[in-house]
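User: Can you predict the 3D structure of Ectonucleoside triphosphate diphosphohydrolase 6-like? Sequence below.
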Amino acid sequence: MRFPKLAFIFMFVGCLVVYLTYVKRHYDDSKPPVSDQLPQHKMDTHKQSTSAQVVSENFQYGIMLDAGSTGTRIHIFKFQIEPNEAPKLAHETFRAIQPGLSAYADDPEKSKEGLLELLKVAKDTVPDRLWSSSPLMLRATAGLRLLPGEKATILLDKVREPLVAKQTFTINPLTVTYGYYLGLGLMSTRLAVLGGFEGQPLAGPQELVSPCLAPDYSGQWEHAEVLYTLKGQKAGEPIYETCLTKVEKMIYKRVRKIEGVKDMDFYAFSYYYDRAVDLGLIDESTGGTVRVSDYIEGAKKVCNNMSAGGIKESPFLCLDLTYISVLLQELDFPPDKELKLARQINNVETSWALGATFYCIESLHKHGTC
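Assistant: Sure. Here are the predicted structure tokens for Ectonucleoside triphosphate diphosphohydrolase 6-like:
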């Protein structure tokens, strides 16, 4: 009777070894390829994956190049597509290089090297068969916007070459677009409300006087490599009302209302999140929910506190909150509309790049174009 038992044990161990070998090989085959590390650029790599189980092979990739002032970042989003459902993020591959594209304003040809490096990451990540259906977008932020018009145009022409070249990445050229933020970012808004002009420093002393600052405030602020001296207007004028008028004039006719905003759920992040933390409306680490009216009332409270001589908060808090409340209302958000504030959604960092790519993917499936 001993022999059959030993045979059974050996058979069991043998099957277990074969099974573990198969699992390991399957796991190794399923891991995404790792792109070569090139020494020419300082680089950061980060990959994220949602916790949701992906059960479908029906995927769509979207690639976003974020051309910022300090570096260029590529986001490669993998979406799970199911019939009659919104796309679900399954995975994100992220890579960043330095410096930003604006550093090549005087030698545009050198901008290609870094972009080719980022495109190689995209080629290594996206399966060959999906290259032609994966939209590739580039969005330029303040670094390029602040360049003189001719330099920006020449640089973008050079940037476009590797993006549409078939030998580097096969895409539909119509999906390669360039977007300039409309001066509605927080830093650009501050400058405009304070009375400055982006890309056009004042002649002589860079001094700005604004009703959105405390009457007795005097300080310095640097933006786009220009150092400004800031001062508040004379005491006695109502800060909130005067600042509100200034912000409304700045934003007038620069945004369009969002259709159906009352019936949709919205997440907000970036400075919406930070200012809500400043007001004590949400926990800094966990986020939370606020109403548009919270920003409105917060702006009034902070601005009036400065009028009374209290400037314990950031000197820009009155301006920032007034701007946020006006922008949301111009977009047609009613005062009682709730906003969800989060730094992560399903373990993925919230960012404009994800939102813009998600919108493009949805538009592709609904209308055939971004």
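The chain has two domains: 59-181, 186-336. The domain at 59-181 is CATH 3.30.420.40 (Nucleotidyltransferase; domain 5).
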